[in-house]
Amino acid sequence: MSTNMDLQIIKTNIDQFFLVIMGMCIIFMQCGFAFLEAGAVRSKNVTNILIKNVMDSFVSGIAYWILAMHLPMAMAGKHRNLLYTFAATAATIVSGAVAERCEFIAYFAYSFVITGFIYPVVTHWAWGSGWLVDGHDYGGDIGQIAYQDFAGSGVVHVLGGVCAFIGAALLGPRIGRFQKGSNVIGNLRGHSVPIAALGGFILFFGFLAFNGGSQLTISSEGDGAAVAVSVVNTIISASFAAFGSLIINRLHIFGNTWSLLVTINGALTGMVAACAGCNQMHPWSAAVLGLFAAMSYTLWSTVMKKLNIDDPLDAVAVHFGGGITGVVLIAFLDKDDGILFNWDRKSGLKLGWQFAGLAAIIGWSALFSLLVFGILKCFGVLRVSREIEDKGLDIPKHNEPAYPVEAYGHGHIEKLIQILETQPMVVTQGYTKMAYENESFTIENEYQDKGVHETPETSAAVRIRNGTPPNGHRTILTISNGTTPSTVDDTTKM
């Protein structure tokens, strides 16, 4: 008796340790989201997007502990030990879609509601003791049929994608993104592809724990094989989705380029799609799923642009598009009772329950997202002012530019910095033009800032260094304080 009891204790501890380690890896995905989003926004908004990603884990912790942890229905079911980490992921999806123009107070509000209320109710439906997980007993040879979503293609990613869609739509596009009266789409590039790529690699790693860890136990017979199958299928789906997205984007109609960022997003879409049934697919089914995920990502990315909804991270295309693909296709690709393997009434009912689950998740998420974002918009606290958006959120909101000019120490701009410091103005980082806190100052010749760091000082100095004019002397800025114009001239040869 003692031996059996000791063995049971060991098994319980191993399972708990497995969940803790998987949860830690999933929390590390926040680092991946942070880098991916930071690289995809302009340098004037990097601090703002990073603090939101840092706070995602902690806002989720507070909201989940205060609300969801004290709701018995939210804590019931197999995923109770990983719900918090998944909740943080659902909230993070939204921050990418509303980046560069969302108020910080609004961020706290929608994150709290998503992680403390919207998400826990859906987890109860699908993973607790709710109607989606219970399904219906059809009797006879059919038996019990229920909604299937192993690691959250619908519960986490479709939910987050719907909230992101509603938030981005009500928030409106960034200034310069869409040109009114024409089909021109402004290409507001992120400031660092390497940083975004680093975030992508971290997310690739985290998704293996996200999907493999959803097995929840590792001590029972077959657990190891189930985890391994989940991880392998996740990798295969991501691989084919990445390659498919790369090829599709190479077509003239979609972009005609070999895009790194599109490839990263395609791979993530494949991993999102795999969440629904990575434990119940053959490897070749995962390959098929990945190809469909690539097409879904491209479709939803195009639809968002056609609707003039600005999503800097393509979060809706990745998570909503990938989530829908996974939830629907598992009804076809499930190796036990998928439509491709068993063309019968049971597999048809299975597909029906997948659609029912999708409808419920989309309807619930959309309803409360409209309520939250709508209230924030009515009270005027959803979006920052145009002036702050032009300048960037880092300095006005946080007084912590991600790339402060004084940190560079470039010799060729040190004198210029000293000159600027003696003037009655404060220079802030801008993307397309120089912006000043004092609007009485004007710039004689505005120019497109194409510098690496997007700072006006660097750009102006580089133009001198490149020999404009040939003798190395150039009037850098002509500033007017409302009375007599004054000229700042740098006579230093570069």
UniProtKB/TrEMBL annotation:
Bilayer-spanning residue ranges: 16-36, 57-76, 82-99, 106-127, 150-172, 193-213, 225-248, 260-277, 283-303, 315-333, 353-376
Entry keyword annotation includes ATP-binding: no
GO molecular function: ammonium channel activity
Keyword flag Cell membrane: no
This protein's UniProt keywords: Ammonia transport, Membrane, Transmembrane, Transmembrane helix, Transport
Pfam families in the cross-refs: Ammonium_transp
Record Gene3D superfamilies: Ammonium transporter AmtB like domains
Membrane topology: Multi-pass membrane protein
Limits of the Ammonium transporter AmtB-like domain: 18-67, 84-403
InterPro entries per record: Ammonium/urea_transptr, Ammonium_transpt_CS, NH4_transpt_AmtB-like_dom
Source organism superkingdom: Eukaryota
Gene Ontology biological process terms in this record: ammonium homeostasis
Gene Ontology CC terms, in alphabetical order: plasma membrane
Subcellular location: Membrane
Family: Belongs to the ammonia transporter channel (TC 1.A.11.2) family.
Protein name per UniProt: Amt
Lineage of source species: Eukaryota, Metazoa, Spiralia, Lophotrochozoa, Mollusca
